[in-house]
């Protein structure tokens, strides 16, 4: 008998009355529409004391065949196993479900605590221990929002969280049942949600500011209104209280003009699904500033005191009201639509059936001059290494087949991009041309405009700080979608002037950062309109050659341990002295050595006795042939070594202008995934290398990397850029 393998298994308590069940239902609907099968694994949560039936949304899924319910005690097999609601695991399960899956994700859809008690609802370490005891240690821990991520790390700084959030999703078309305008004589302020005291402002003053007792407005509340009335000691004349569950939220949202949501300041709202629903329904939302990391510029941010003036202002300006409503709808569709969920499933090996669903890694096609191109022009800065260029090439080689792709770079590595199969345009940097700043600004802007005219891209993706020349080109070509590919982990108190220029771009794409919890740079507080993906690496793990082939390519014998030294291009700081000392240490420990010379090094490396010099790109292709890597902690090499489980000692470069290599390396060391040499000129080098050459230490490092390894966000970034290109092309065709 053939075992029935489902695409997705979801474990939860399907009696939850609110957002947890609504979120699960949305994901099951998205999966069913894509032809994916779902099995629901029911467990009883210890904190749902009263016996309840399944949520009606879940019942409907089971009725129409969108999902099946697992039989208790029987083996369930799935490609992906998704666990929802960590509070279920605050006590031992009465019966542990038997689930076998290729991948497992624990979605942290609730913060461990609130502002006063970081472990009020659950202890992350205890929950993790229990889940790993049930289902194994190979689990992805995915927060549902930046707020939950922050709170988890506050209570458990070493929590191995995924680089990107497992955000909520919604079908905007199903919720768009109203015209985006407020035509009633009196504006109607409303909110909906499950009854809970902490979901209301703490003071009566703020409660009445957010939901006014004013003859000029009406207030409608679906769910929890009785709690507000109890707090006030009366029901305001203009209020209408609708019992929770007595009408569908979608219908309720059609009866209000403004969605206003303010809660107790101690509450850490996990996501804000009701906010997303209101946006999808075409209702402008007024919320607190703390929601900005999730909803960007799609919401209106104010305080309770600012609600009534803003409502009156917007109600009197119907054009602006429509613009706010439409902007919110578009945002939710692009950020939280069903397609985003299918993408994250595909990243975990779950793809819809049928031809053409496999994601291919490809070399880019040459663009044509059609005038209606879906192409992407990728512009890289002249970085000190190949980081800017490699990130763009990593994305470019994963763009959908047939997408015209051009690399335009100021880097000496232009020849590398050409060898990798890209149509490449070289733009000499200011340092190469030795031009005055204004002349180079004019040159850069003019050159970018020429390239846009020649290749006719729909999107220009810039991995560079926004120099004056780039800003000038953006201003000159507003018909193009401009994207800033902005790596995080900047040094503290640097680069603020560049952050302020982010508004010139139509969107910001942020490659993920393993050490994000230690990031104190300016990108941390600038989250509006930022699309995040997992850390980007040029290769995926299955593209690395096997150990024997790697050793052959690197000129290494198979019978001795081997170490790679890659301390950067040598274009910023003098790396020759630490390299020599490290080489002596490794040689005395019996290691054979490979010295990696950067493809863009401006000066040849000095030979090191006993070391074999190689100049290969990408060097990461051969990492499986190495037992140890001594490396700078630049973005690309750092994430490659962690992702591919290579024992590493990081020697951070302290001379970079923006990149905070020190904090990045310290974080990896604190996580047990690498070692760090803080002072290569002192005794620290000898002490750390003495540990690094030990086989047991290297094994521990490799094992820890496997536990915390980030995914590769290059494919997701390529998909997102391709969607932007499609959207721009569609608008262009419409207006031709």
From TrEMBL:
GO terms for molecular function: hexosyltransferase activity. It holds the Pfam family Glyco_tran_28_C. Residues 181-200, 347-374 are annotated as: Disordered. Keywords: Transferase. The keyword Transferase applies. Residues 619-700 form the Glycosyl transferase family 28 C-terminal domain. The keyword Transferase applies. It comes from the Bacteria. This is Glycosyl transferase family 28. It comes from Actinoplanes lutulentus.
